[in-house]
From TrEMBL:
GO molecular function terms listed in the Swiss-Prot or TrEMBL record: ATP binding; ATP hydrolysis activity; transmembrane transporter activity
Domain ABC transporter: 23-259
Classification via SMART domains: AAA
GO cellular component: membrane protein complex; plasma membrane
InterPro entries the UniProt entry points to: AAA+_ATPase, ABC_transporter-like_ATP-bd, ABC_transporter-like_CS, ABC_transpr_LolD-like, MacB-like_ATP-bd, P-loop_NTPase
Domain of life: Bacteria
Protein name: Putative ABC transport system ATP-binding protein
Keywords: ATP-binding, Nucleotide-binding, Transport
């Protein structure tokens, strides 16, 4: 069965995988330095991220959010513990296999958009697929870029787009390849409220309609309410887990770790 736009349904997408959890980690630690200067950036984290689940990671500055996300994405190696993505253990994976896993399974939305200045928005969005020799689904491209409200800016180059538009081009690029997991680091940090909502709505659609697993680091309680759950970190550990988070429950939980 297909949706009106010819896109695959959630069932079709999620049955491509058989893992209960798209991303899992057990007893993960990351320490920097030695002796008295040792920093326990991540200090014993175990967590599961189900297929199609949208998780926000919050917590005070220095609590280990970015470090944890980099570990889960295979961009950094844990000092201890195990991590698996799409059923593949990252521990001991050689560089080539890790690169392939990231290319085939993972999308990134980071503060630095990394758009190529000489390409139009459309060319930037479709580049990863073209490099991988995969076809570009024009209908899907339209659905994603319309949801992100950049459908009328596709023939412009990055320098002709606002920062918020560039950020949404980067989101569209991450979503079009339909990666199993999308990692987003402060994706709304530099955006106005309306633009931020469009971006968050796009991420939520990716989870709900296409079964993609979204893991987003944010300081913004409003952004985190778009998620299915919030993990609140403190001192490198998971201090709290909120399901169906509201602004009130998020603020209360954050207050309990910052006092
Ligand atoms: N490469 C590194 N070398 C040494 N210490 C590091 C390194 N990267 C991070 N840290 C330390 O690890 C701890 C966690 O950092 P991390 O960036 O994960 O925190 P965060 O919760 O993302 O913070 P913020 O909200 O400010 O971005 C901090 O004390 C930080 O100084």
């Amino acid at each position: 069965m297909c949706t009106a736009g010819g896109l695959p349904t959630v069932d079709e997408v999620t049955t491509q995988t058989t893992y209960a959890d798209m991303v899992s980690c057990r007893d993960v630690r990351k320490t920097y330095g030695t002796g008295e200067s040792t920093v326990r950036a991540v200090d014993g984290v175990s967590a599961d991220f189900a297929a199609g689940e949208f998780t926000a990671i919050m917590g005070p500055s220095g609590s280990g959010k970015t470090t944890l996300m980099h570990l889960l994405a295979g961009l950094d190696t844990p000092t201890e513990g195990s991590i698996s993505v799409a059923g593949t253990s990252l521990v001991g994976l050689d560089d080539r296999s890790l690169t392939e896993l990231r290319r085939d399974r993972i999308g990134f939305v980071f503060q630095a958009f990394n758009l190529l200045p000489t390409l139009t928005a459309r060319q930037n969005i479709t580049l990863p697929l073209r490099l991988a020799g995969r076809p570009v689904d024009a209908a899907q491209l339209r659905v994603i870029t319309d949801a992100l409200q950049i459908g009328d800016r596709l023939e412009h180059r990055p320098a002709e787009l606002s920062g918020g538009q560039q950020q949404r081009v980067a989101v569209a690029r991450a979503l079009l390849a339909q990666p199993s997991v999308v990692f987003a680091d402060e994706p709304t940090g530099a955006l106005d409220i309306a633009t931020g909502r469009a971006l968050l709505g796009g991420l939520r659609d990716a989870a709900q309609q296409y079964g993609q697993t979204i893991i987003m680091v944010t300081h913004d309680p409003g952004a985190a309410t778009y998620a299915d759950r919030v993990l609140v970190m403190a001192d490198g550990r998971i201090h709290d887990e909120l399901r169906r988070p509201s602004r009130e429950t998020i603020l209360a939980s954050l207050a309990s770790v910052t006092v």
